[in-house]
Design a protein that fits this description.
single chain; binds 1,4-dihydronicotinamide adenine dinucleotide; 2-enoyl-CoA Hydratase, Chain A, domain 1; 3 domains; eight-stranded mixed beta sheet
């Protein structure tokens, strides 16, 4: 079956998609070339229009880069101008083909995404060159290193889209009928216009910024190299160099890891045991209980997705404080440039404050984010049970409590589910949903789909202590404290983990979350008889070192800048002395292995117990909620690449030190024997 249709509309050749899903790329490109030749050979044809053949759902899968570059060159070199009508989402090869056209006419909703960097790649050298000519070096660098999506209007401003039209095809045909009007003078001939001259200072600044942000990632750095080379060196030589970097990225470990992440994130949305015909409930209005740190951010998620949301607090004062925080967060996101002020205002208008439960009667979903206290939560859920619509989903944002115990305070446990957002909830990508034993298939389907509505990466966890993420964090965080007892400093541990690629080391994270909060969680738990807590955390709290908010914790702080603090180290040393531990210099490799292997083993236990559905879900949680470097594929993927047997060895050592639970999970042992998780 052909991928493409070829039609004449008067003197214009219109190439459109042939209904059926497009064939894999080689057939698509071949047909495109055939169609171009046909238009070339038809003396009456004056211009060619690509009618919506390029959007991402057209299935232009990754082609051989040489084939793609040849096709782009043929489009660009066509003596008869080619005009692309852009609709939907354009990324990758489709976008490269569009950029090779003489003009692009976009529907208002079209989106152009330079997403290669997100999977460890860069666009082909030809595409970078075309971008450079149209947008200049700075905008090209920004777009390619961030993987930005540009909406139709932004793309028009950047010079990538030449006109907008509600009916992109009709507008493209207008363009095609009057090419003479737009006939290019030398300054308009983008195909031959030279790349803008390089600006060494500009590149130096951008390179430093990128290196700092990329921390170990190859593709963003290579993109800067490529853009600079294409601006500077003679054409043929620069092309060769850029092509070598392109190959380096495409054939490298990081691309493989990021592809794993992308597949894992997609797979995480599926829940194998739900009946296939389970339909999600429509979410038209939402409510959030509690306007504290989390509640306000959760409400922002709904509002940003265009869903009206009621934010309920205990009193007018508390509500005013919460709303002020929401407003401040919107102002911050406008300042940061992540939201324009019009959108922020529109979203803010969708958030309505309330202090009366009766106002919740319309909500399709109610997310509770009150204090982490079972009694308080049970009271709130009992109230919700009285006022909520019969179909309403009653969700809790608890990070540690038992979902079933909360559900038991209602007459409808099938409607109760965990929706665990991460802080700050308006920014962090992860949504860890938690199913209770009674949660219905429809409710699970709805909260899984909600992830997509809210722009989150979503994972389903079982209702077990700490769910997926916090259970793993517990082992990882404890191990960091044991390493402190044995001789490491906070600075040393954090540097090792940050050099590995974590956004923040474990002790800096503790200081951020608040050491008192960590201690409180700890006090609500009991450990197996053969385990112990490290006294380090308690000592920090006792010394008033609560973390960033107190200006001191495992570090001292000037603003948000952390500074190694001999006083904190002295507290740690005194703990070692009391415990009779002779402190030693712990090699970086040992720090890395002990922390990461503890994490991986905890992940294996979760998969074994069915708390996580698959090892890829564990990776998804850790990357999107806990700062694990995506380009290493997540802890489970990383372990598979670096030797599951090494994890077994470490886990055995840790079990001897800290207790049986630290020993290798049976799943880990089986996987190590195979060399892979499944
Ligand atoms: P918070 O203390 O900042 O806010 C709680 C808010 O709930 C307060 O404004 C309080 O006035 C309000 N509240 C208390 N009882 C209420 C009631 N009966 N009705 C209405 N409002 C009531 O707490 P935070 O940090 O926002 O945590 C909320 C929930 O989210 C907790 O379950 C927590 O474990 C969870 N969570 C917190 C994270 C964090 O990083 N702070 C991360 C993920 C989950």
């Amino acid at each position: 079956m052909p991928c493409l249709n070829y039609q004449r509309q008067e003197q214009i050749a219109v190439i459109s998609r042939a209904g059926a899903p497009a064939e894999p790329i080689p057939a698509f490109l071949q047909e495109l070339m055939t169609a171009l030749r046909r238009a070339r050979d038809d003396a009456e044809v004056t211009a060619i229009v690509f009618a919506n053949i390029l959007s991402a759902d057209g299935g232009i899968a990754a082609p051989e880069v040489d084939d793609l570059e040849d096709a782009c060159a043929a489009v660009e070199d066509s003596a008869k101008p080619v005009i692309a009508a852009l609709e939907g989402v354009l990324i990758g090869p489709a976008l490269e083909l569009a950029l090779a056209c003489r003009w692009r006419v976009g529907a208002p909703g079209c989106v152009l995404g330079f997403t290669e960097v997100k999977i460890g790649l860069m666009p082909s050298p030809g595409a970078i060159k075309r971008l450079l000519r149209r947008m200049g070096a700075q905008a090209t660098l920004e777009a390619l290193t961030t993987g930005a999506f540009l909406g139709a209007e932004e793309a028009a401003e950047a010079g990538l889209v030449d006109a907008l039209g509600a009916d992109a095809l009709a507008a493209a045909l207008v363009f095609a009928r009057e090419p003479a009007d737009r006939e290019e003078g030398p300054e308009n001939d983008l195909a031959t216009r030279p790349a803008p001259p390089p600006d060494a200072a500009q590149f130096a600044i951008f390179r430093a910024k990128t290196a700092a942000k990329a921390r170990g990632q190859l593709a963003p750095v290579r993109i800067v190299d490529a853009v600079e080379a294409l601006c500077a060196a003679p054409a043929e030589e620069s092309r060769r160099r850029v092509r070598a970097w392109f190959d380096e990225c495409r054939d490298g470990e990081q691309h493989k890891a990021l592809m794993h992440v992308s597949v894992a994130q997609r797979e995480a949305r599926t829940v194998p045991d739900l009946p296939p015909d389970t339909a999600a409930l429509p979410i038209r209005t939402a409510a959030v209980i509690g306007a504290g740190t989390m509640g306000g951010g959760i409400a922002m998620n709904f509002a940003n997705a265009g869903i009206p949301v009621i934010l309920l607090e205990v009193s007018g004062d508390a509500l005013e404080r919460g709303m002020a925080l929401v407003r401040k967060n919107y102002e911050a996101s406008v300042k940061r440039g992540s939201q324009d002020s019009k959108r922020a205002e529109a979203a803010l208008r969708l958030i309505r404050g309330a202090t009366e439960y009766a106002q919740l009667a319309q909500a399709d979903i109610i997310v509770e984010a009150v204090f982490e206290d079972m009694q308080v939560k049970r009271e709130v859920f009992a109230r919700l049970d009285e006022v909520a619509a019969p179909h309403a989903i009653l969700a809790t944002n608890t990070s540690t409590l038992d979902i079933d115990a909360i559900a038991a305070s209602t007459s409808r446990p099938a409607q109760v589910v965990g929706t665990h957002f991460f802080s700050p909830a308006n920014i962090m990508k992860l949504l860890e949903n938690v199913r209770g034993k009674a949660t219905s298939a429809q409710v699970i389907r709805t909260v899984m789909d909600l992830g997509r509505v809210l722009g989150k990466v979503v994972v389903l966890a079982g209702n077990a202590d700490g769910f997926i993420g916090n259970r793993m964090l517990m082992f990882y965080g404890l191990e960091a404290e044991f390493l402190l007892e044995e001789g490491a400093t906070p600075e040393r541990i954090d540097r090792v983990m940050e050099d590995f690629g974590f956004a923040m080391g474990p002790l800096a994270v503790r200081d951020l979350a608040g050491n008192d909060v960590g201690l409180l969680v700890r006090r609500s738990r009991t450990l197996p008889a053969d385990e112990r807590w490290s006294p380090v955390l308690g000592r920090m709290v006792a010394a008033g070192r609560l973390g960033q908010k107190a200006g001191k914790g495992f570090y001292r702080y000037e603003g948000r800048t952390r500074i190694p603090d001999p006083e904190a180290v002295a507290i740690i040393e005194s703990v070692s002395a009391e415990m009779g531990i002779t402190r030693r210099e712990i090699p970086a490799q040992e720090i890395l292995d002990r922390l990461l292997h503890a994490l991986v083993n905890a992940g294996a236990q979760l998969v074994e117990e069915g708390v996580a559905l698959r090892s890829g879900d564990v990776d998804t949680v850790y990357i999107n909620g806990y700062g694990f470097p995506a380009w290493r594929g997540g802890p489970m993927y990383w372990a598979e690449q670096h030797g599951l047997d090494r994890v077994v060895v470490t886990a055995r050592k840790l079990a001897a030190l800290h207790g049986a639970r630290w020993g290798p999970a049976p799943l880990l042992l089986r996987a190590a024997a195979r060399g892979r998780w499944r």
